[in-house]
Amino acid sequence: MSKSTILAIFMIVLVLGMVTKETQGQEMCRDILMKAKNCDEGTCDTLCKQKWKGNGSCFPNVYTYRKSCLCTFPCKT
């Protein structure tokens, strides 16, 4: 094999290893927003994007008997 072929294979393995490391160790964090108010899907998603750059969705909260906003976002390392 020529030097350029060996170098190309090495670079491919290096790049794939870096991409796998970034996506594999990514944990998702959660935060509950709008505890006092009844959740609205549009408001929940907007608040979540503003605060955490994540996705928000409403869920029935059995402790408050209302819908709360659950925000899911990538944890910071």
From TrEMBL:
InterPro entries: DEFL. Its main location: secreted. Residues 1-25 form the signal peptide. It holds the Pfam family SLR1-BP. The keyword Glycosyltransferase does not apply. GO terms for biological process: defense response to fungus; killing of cells of another organism. GO terms for cellular component: extracellular region. This is S locus-related glycoprotein 1 binding pollen coat protein. It is found in: Secreted. It comes from Arabidopsis thaliana x Arabidopsis arenosa. Belongs to the DEFL family. Keywords: Antimicrobial, Capsid protein, Disulfide bond, Fungicide, Plant defense, Secreted, Signal, Virion.
